[in-house]
Every structure is written in C-alpha cells, then in structure tokens.
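User: I'm writing a tutorial on reading structure tokens. Could you give me a worked example: one chain, its sequence, then its tokens, then a sentence or two explaining what the tokens reveal?
Assistant: Sure. Here is the example chain.
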Amino acid sequence: MSVLLVTSSPRGAASHSTRIATEFAQKLVATDPSANLVVRDLVANPLPHIDTDYATGIYTPAENRTQRQAEVVGVSDAVLNELFAADTVILATGFINFNISSTLKSWVDHVARSGKTFAYGENGPKGLVTGKKVYIVLASGGIYSEGAAVQMDHAIPYLRSVLGFIGMTDVEVIRIEGVGMGPDAVTAALAKATAKVDALVAASAHTAIAA
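And here are its predicted structure tokens:
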C-alpha cells in the first residue's frame, strides 16, 4: 500500500487538519509493514500557481518547450507521479473563506490535466485516476456539516466534484468542526475525528486481511 498525504494548512504545528491527517496516515501505514508514505507539504513547499508558461507548456511537445515551460510542467509531472503511485490519498485542509486553502487549490490545478488525469471522448469527459481511496480531512471554526451553514460549505462539494471528474469517486470525509467555539469544542471535535480515524484504520486493516 502506498499512501499520499497532502497537507495545506498555513497554521503549522497548530493545524488541526494537519495533525489528524498525519496521525491517520501514520496509523494506516503501521497496519501494513510494506506500506509506503509520501508526504507533500504544500506550505513548506508550495506549488506555483498555474500561469502562461504552464498553460502553454502542457500542450507543447517536450522537445519544443522553453526552459520555463519545462520547469513548470516538470513540477506538475512530479505531482502527478505521486498521485498515480498512491493507493490511498489523504488531503488535509483548513476551511478558509468557505473553501479549501489556495495552496491545495494549486495542487488540484496541477493534477487536473487533460490527457493525463481526464480525457474528452464521444461520451464526454472521463476520469483517468481510478482505483484509489481518498480521505478529506477538513477543519473548520464553525459547524458546516449540518444546519443553516451547510450552504456555505464550498470545500467538500468542490473537492468531491473535481476529484470525481478525474476518476476518484471513493471519497470519505473526516471533519474537525466547531474548533472556533472554545476549548471544550476543540477537544470534542478532535476526539470525534480521532474516533472516526481509528474506525477507518480498523476497517482498512480488516479489508486488507480479508483480501
């Protein structure tokens, strides 16, 4: 099993999404002695926002690319190689202005590439990244999974849509919500998320044994 962990919170060691996602990845790997963990920290090593060189470079034959085009496409290729090599993908993000972090959005922009992760055919677009399990770890100050604020959550609907577009439809969400509502709320949110992580790890280990 190969696990790809992508973290994106700017809060460093104080990040709840990074903490829970990292613990989750480590627990998954611990259940399989042959497992491999790859970590992409988008804060320590942010991906460049897509620009003209990227937009033109991905459609230019490699031998005809400028040095700058080759560099930015090379970055995207490296990210794609990590994604295709993974069996399990864990995406961690804070809930920032009702959506995902801009650093994670850049990751999405680099992996959503025509001819690489999706293709257009007679029946419309087809996702090319298949057979992977995806977990989204989302931390938010308020409660957006239920109640009146549900309509303000643009993070999970967006990620489900774009991941599904490129073929990753097996998506599980782990929420750490209400962390802006005081210390007790933080403790409760972390405990709930940890309990879900442990249940998912146990289920994953059981599936692996059954297989």
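What the tokens reveal: The chain has six helices and seven strands. The two ends are 13 Å apart (CA to CA).
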